[in-house]
Amino acid sequence: MALNSRTPAGFVLCLCLGLFCAFSAHSVSLDGKWSLRNSDGSVAGSGSVPGCVHSALQQLGYIQDPYFRFNDVAYRWIAFDNWTYTTTFNTSEQLRSKQKVVLVLDGVDTVASVQLNGFTLGGTDNMFRSYAFSVRPLLKEAENVLSISLASPVLYASQRRKAHSAYPVPPECPPDVQNGQCHVNFIRKEQSSFSWDWGPSFPTLGLWRGVHLEAFDVLQLIQVSSVPLFDSSASRWSVQVELMVDAVQTSDGLVSVSIPELFSDQTYQSRFLQGRTKNTFILHINTSTEVDLWWPRGHGDQNSYRLRVRGLRDGSVLFSQESKVYFRTVELVQEPVPGSPGLSFFFRINSKPVFLKGSNWIPAHAFQDQVTPDILLNLLHSAADANMNALRVWGGGVYEQDQFYDLCDHMGIMVWQDFMFACAMYPTEADFIQTVRSEVIQQVQRLKSHPSIIIWSGNNENEAALATNWFDIPESHRATYVKDYVTLYVENIRALVQQEDPSRPFLVSSPTNGAESEREGWVASNPYDPHFGDTHFYSYEDDCWDWSTFPRTRFASEFGFQSWPSFSTLKTVSVDDDWSYDSNFSSHRQHHEHGNQQMLRQAALHFHLPNSTDALKRFTHTLYMTQVMQAQCVKAQTEFYRRSQTEIIDGKGRTMGALYWQLNDIWPAPSWSSIEFGGKWKMLHYFAQDFFAAVLPVGFEDDGTLLIYAVSDLSPDLTLRAVVSVHSWSGLDPVCTLRSDLVLVPGGSAVVVLKQEVAALLAGCGRCTRLSCLLTFHLEDGTGVQRGPSNYHFLCSPKDAEGLRKANITAKVQEDESGFSVTLRSDAVAPFVWLDVGNIAGRFSSNGFLMVSADRTVGFTPWRPTSVSQLSTSLSVTSLRDVY
Ligand code: BMA
Question: One GO CC annotation, please (predicted)?
Answer without folding.
Answer: lysosome
